[in-house]
Design goal:
The complex is a heterodimer of chains A (157) and B (168).
Chain A: H1 3-9, E1 22-24, H2 29-39, E2 43-47, E3 53-58, H3 59-68, E4 82-83, E5 88-89, H4 95-104, E6 108-112, E7 119-124, H5 125-135, H6 137-140
Parallel strand pairs in A: 1-2, 5-6
Antiparallel strand pairs in A: 2-3, 3-4, 6-7
Chain B: H1 32-38, E1 52-53, H2 59-69, E2 73-78, E3 82-88, H3 89-96, H4 100-103, E4 113-114, E5 119-120, H5 125-133, E6 140-143, E7 149-153, H6 155-166
Parallel strand pairs in B: 1-2, 5-6
Antiparallel strand pairs in B: 2-3, 3-4, 6-7
The chains are: A alpha/beta (157), B alpha/beta (168).
């Protein structure tokens, strides 16, 4: 079956999901950056005290902020976050993630439970690349990770 | 009974010789996407525009350029577009974000990721895909055969290439 067909039929649950890193709206940008560093992830979700998502703050937001004012790193993260838009549900087709990324140019897409009431993970560019690579294991996963322009040894007799 | 070791091979009749690889078909792409990913060079994708920056660039200026021009990473090159490193969003987060005031005048050479993974312009998009999916490298510089930077591939460019060739 072709990749196009698979991404229409298979659900987001088939993608590798990253954990959602949450920070309170009252946290500083510095604290949000520390959480991103700790998790090795380029996005935190800003939540209120009831764990309701209010927005997202990414590496890109951090760079834009630092370019304007380095002092702002101690301001509340909620001042510079991007409001959270629609999440995909875990039972939506993978096609939805492709569409989100294509339409909004987003690196990350939030994934909620089937009811859409709670965030259960993040996916995005890396999740989709892994999905496509898994689709063609014999052609993609055999590729060298190290660059080699020439063969190092003679081949054959 | 003839000795199997010493048995002489029968001489081929004129016109009888056949190429042992004549039935070898090689890889046959099943559709347009497979052909695009596995049979074409990476230069079939969008690999430009790109810009290179000297290793002496102060890190504060580098962050400013990334913000203004919406670059996700900078290609750090010596003369003749010889790549020596990448300076990425992740380098900003991990190495300078907390102390940009203090470190801002230092050269980007001190904070870049040296010797990044690269691909050559003759490689296939499948190799770039594997570097991103399995290797976890978000940006992969493309070099010519004489090791000069000729482009860069990021996940957005690769995703667009996939969308274009996936068909309806």
């Amino acid at each position: 079956m072709g990749l196009r067909q698979d991404i229409r039929n298979e659900t987001v649950a088939g993608l590798s999901l990253r954990p959602v890193i949450r920070v309170l709206a009252t946290s500083s940008v510095r604290q949000a950056a520390a959480k991103m560093r700790e998790a090795g992830l380029g996005l935190v979700v800003v939540v209120d005290e009831y764990d309701k998502p209010l927005g997202r703050f990414s590496e890109r937001d951090l760079i834009r902020l630092l370019a304007k004012s380095t002092a702002a790193i101690d301001d509340p993260v909620s001042r510079y976050m991007t409001p959270t838009e629609y999440c995909v549900k875990i039972n939506d087709p993978i096609q939805q993630v492709f569409s989100r990324m294509e339409v909004y140019g987003r690196r990350f897409v939030c994934v909620s439970n089937e009811e859409g009431t709670r965030m259960v993970g993040l996916t995005g560019q890396k999740g989709l690349m892994e999905y496509v690579a898994d689709h063609f294991p014999r052609q993609v996963k055999v590729q060298e990770l190290e660059p080699k322009l020439y063969m190092e040894d003679r081949e054959g007799a | 009974m003839p000795d199997p070791v010493r048995r002489r091979r029968r001489a081929a009749e004129p016109g009888e010789f056949s190429d042992p690889l004549q039935k070898f078909e090689g890889y046959q792409p099943a559709d347009q996407l497979e052909e695009a990913l596995f049979c074409r060079p990476v230069t079939d994708m969008q690999i430009t525009p790109f810009r290179t920056f000297p290793p002496e660039l102060p890190v504060r200026e580098a962050v400013g350029i990334m913000a203004e021009e919406d670059f996700f990473c900078l290609l750090i090159c010596e003369q003749d577009r010889k790549l020596i490193g990448l300076f990425t969003e992740r380098d900003v987060l991990m190495k300078v974000a907390d102390r940009l005031d203090e470190l801002g005048d230092q050269p980007i050479r001190d904070f870049m990721t040296p010797d990044p993974r690269i691909i050559y312009e003759t490689d296939t998009p499948a190799k770039a895909l594997n570097l991103m999916a399995e290797g976890g490298f978000r940006h992969v510089p493309v070099l010519s055969i004489d090791d000069k930077v000729v482009g860069i591939i990021g996940p957005q460019r690769l995703a667009r290439y996939l969308f274009t060739h996936m068909g309806d």
